[in-house]
């Protein structure tokens, strides 16, 4: 579904075991559309196309995990028309995944508080996750996702299990991304320098990369730039 072989060969950036997981805050869709005199929804449709293109690229360079912030727990505050458009894009994407999930090398996971969605949609998401779980490139789509909500969810799970004392390993087991290594790099497009409640627990030692490029304009060359910046840094994890 969107992860077919790339047609044009451009020199591929080399990555190694230091970079397994990149997460993207796909910001700037609304401004991109408004700059063109178009409604914000137009930006989201183009943003969805960019998401597919960047997913294909990340898989092609050998990345193992990619996470995208598609809709936050706070995004419901947006005008109804905009929320409806994003949900429609999401619905169409799910249907496409459902039809085509056997073809690609992608394990698609949906992370966030999914209880707000209809049972039919949740069943589809669960089936896509289950039936692609043997694929090697993991794509986490964060939808109705909030980092604080995720941590609370994990703590409440552990209370339900009857724990009186919890460890990091317990939380790692109960967060939505369980099984994925923490992101090595979080990229935020659109020029803002904030984290917006994204992967709060997982990002304790993550490297950040911010760019002014608006998400619909984001390209494989921009991914390469973020990766080059990542490799120019020395990760110390609190050591020296
Ligand atoms: C932030 O830009 C973007 C969003 C809240 C929605 C992102 C959704 C997509 C790119 C579609 C993804 C689709 C799938 C299937 C995963 P913004 O609207 O805040 O832009 P602005 O900062 O310019 O207003």
Write a short abstract of this structure.
The chain has 240 residues and is of the alpha/beta class.
Structure description:
The structure is a single chain. The chain is α/β, with parallel strands linked by helices. The chain has one domain (21-146, 182-231): Undecaprenyl pyrophosphate synthetase, CATH 3.40.1180.10. It has helices spanning 29-34, 40-60, 80-100, 119-131, 147-160, 168-174, 220-231, and strands at residues 21-25, 65-72, 106-111, 137-145, 185-188, 207-210. Strands 3-4-2-1-5-6 form a 6-stranded parallel sheet, with helices on both faces. Farnesyl diphosphate (FPP) binds next to helix 1, helix 2, strand 2 and helix 3.
- Percent of residues in helices: 25-40%
3D shape: globular
Give the second-level CATH assignment, the architecture: 3-Layer(aba) Sandwich
Provide the succession of SSEs.
Answer: EHHEHEHEHHEEH
> Number of folding domains?
1
Low-confidence stretches: none
Bound molecules: farnesyl diphosphate
């Amino acid at each position: 579904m969107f992860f077919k072989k790339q047609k044009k060969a451009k020199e591929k950036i080399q990555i190694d075991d230091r970079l397994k997981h990149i997460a993207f805050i796909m910001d700037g869709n609304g401004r991109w559309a408004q700059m063109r005199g178009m409604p914000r929804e137009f930006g989201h449709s183009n943003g969805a196309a960019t998401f597919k293109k960047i997913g294909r690229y990340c898989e092609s360079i050998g990345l193992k995990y990619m996470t995208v912030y598609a809709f936050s727990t706070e995004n419901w505050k947006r005008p109804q028309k905009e929320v409806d458009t994003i949900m429609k894009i999401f619905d169409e994407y799910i249907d496409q995944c459902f039809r085509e999930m056997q073809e690609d090398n992608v394990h698609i996971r949906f992370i966030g508080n999914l209880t707000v969605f209809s049972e039919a949609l949740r069943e589809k998401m669960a089936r896509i996750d289950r039936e692609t779980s043997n694929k090697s490139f993991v794509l986490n789509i964060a939808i109705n996702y909030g980092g604080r909500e995720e941590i609370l969810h994990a703590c409440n799970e552990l209370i339900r299990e009857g724990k009186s004392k919890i460890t990091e390993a317990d939380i790692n087991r109960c967060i939505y991304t369980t099984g994925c290594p923490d992101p090595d790099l979080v990229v935020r497009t659109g020029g803002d320098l904030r984290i917006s409640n994204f992967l709060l627990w997982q990002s304790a030692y993550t490297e950040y990369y911010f760019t002014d490029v608006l998400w619909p304009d984001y390209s494989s060359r921009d991914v390469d730039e973020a990766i080059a910046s990542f490799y120019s840094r020395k990760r110390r994890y609190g050591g020296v």
